Amino acid sequence: MERFESVSLRESILSSPNSPFVPLPFDIDDWNLNASNATIRTMSGLDRFIWEQERETKNPLIGAIFVTLVLGNEHGAKMFDVSDAEAISKKDYRILDKIVIAGLKQNELTTKDESEQSKK
Question: Which terminus of the chain has fewer CB atoms gathered within 10 Å of its CB, N or C?
């Protein structure tokens, strides 16, 4: 069994902060969200895997699932769990679309990437 050459490097990676987040780039008055209390998160590897798996199954809740993965509080922590996607999907699509677009930008995805992936 191989031993790790540098335990300190391993620990440094495992304890490093997660991906960055940015303040919400617009206000959502209906939800009382703004740049001071909401963020758009960069997805973790697990979040990205969940999103891709749900997209491959053509889950009709995929937009709402994406919102649960990228919408965060002022500290960048998720506001919602994937189990909230059904309830979120019943919200105003114009608000959801704005969050999805901001999330695609933050995660360096484009709407072209999204549509190409959804065809697979």
Answer: N
